[in-house]
Amino acid sequence: MERIENINDKLIESLEHLPPLPQTVQKLQSYMATHGSDIDINEIVRIISDDPLITANLLHLANSPFYGFSSEIKTVNQALVLLGINNVKNMIIADYVKNSFKIDVSPYGLNTNDFLNLCHEQTEFIASWILEEDKKLCYTLIPIVMLLRLGIMVFSSFLIQNNLDKKFLLHLSKNNYYNILALEKEFFGVEHVAFLATLFKRWNFDDIFIECISSMDYVRSASANIKKETYALCIVETLFSPEVKKDYEFCVKRAYQIIKEAKINGVDFNLENFIAKLPHKFKKYLK
C-alpha cells in the first residue's frame, strides 16, 4: 500500500479542487461575519432572494418533512423567522454542498442509490426522533446529518481520480466489507466522519459544526454546550453506518448503549420516543 503520508498529502491537496460556494452564500457569510449581533433580517432576505435558485431550494427544504411545519412556508422571511438566520444559512450551504458532487461510492463496494437512500434515511430519522424533544437541537443537527457521509463522497472521488479505488475495494473485501472506518484510518490516516471537520472549515460552517464532529471520538469529554448534539450524532452514525455487510444487531445495541451512557453523563434523551421512532428494520433487535 502507498505510504499514508503520501496519500494524505494528495488528499489535502485535492481539497483545492472542491467546488467553491456560490456568490450568494459567500455574501451571506461575509455579511453575517462582519455584522455580528447587528444583523438586519431584511438584508439577509435581500441577499437570499436575489438568487432564485437558492431561494427555491431553501423553500423546498424548509417545507420538507424534516422540519415538520404544518403550513407551507412561502417566503424567505418566513423561513428565517421560523428556523433562525444561522440555521437557514447552514441549510443553504449543506444543500448546495450535498448537490455539488457527482456521487460514485463504488470504491466502498456500495450501490450509489442505496447509499443516497441511507443518507436520506438518517436525516429523516434525526428529524423524526429529535423534533418532538427539542426543536432547536433538531434544526441545528439536520444540516450536519445531511452531510454526515460527505467524507465518503470525497474519499471515493479521490480514490477514483488517483486510480486507488480498486486497491481500496480489494482491502475492504479482504476484511469481508466490515469496519470501513478502520480501513479509512489505515489508508488515509483519518476516518470519513473525522475528515468532515476539515471540510466544514473549508466551507466556513459554524464553529458548532466543527466542534461537534471533532468531539465525536471523545464524546464523554465534549463541552457541555455541544454534548447533546455530539451524542445524537454518535447514535445516528452508529445506526446508519454504510457497510455493505452490516451487523444490524450490533448497531442497535451499540446505539442503545450510547443513549444509556449519555444519561450517565447528564444528557437525557427520551428512550421511549427513540425506540418509537426507530425504523422497523432496527426495532426487532431491541427485544
UniProtKB/TrEMBL annotation:
PANTHER family: PTHR33525, TWO COMPONENT SIGNAL TRANSDUCTION SYSTEM RESPONSE REGULATOR (PTHR33525:SF5)
Alphabetically ordered keywords of this record: Membrane, Transmembrane, Transmembrane helix
Source species taxonomy: Bacteria, Pseudomonadati, Campylobacterota, Epsilonproteobacteria, Campylobacterales
Membrane-spanning segments: 137-160
Domain HDOD residues, every copy: 18-219
Pfam family, one: HDOD
Organism: Campylobacter helveticus
InterPro entries in the record: HDOD, RNase_Y/CdgJ
Record-given protein name: HDOD domain-containing protein
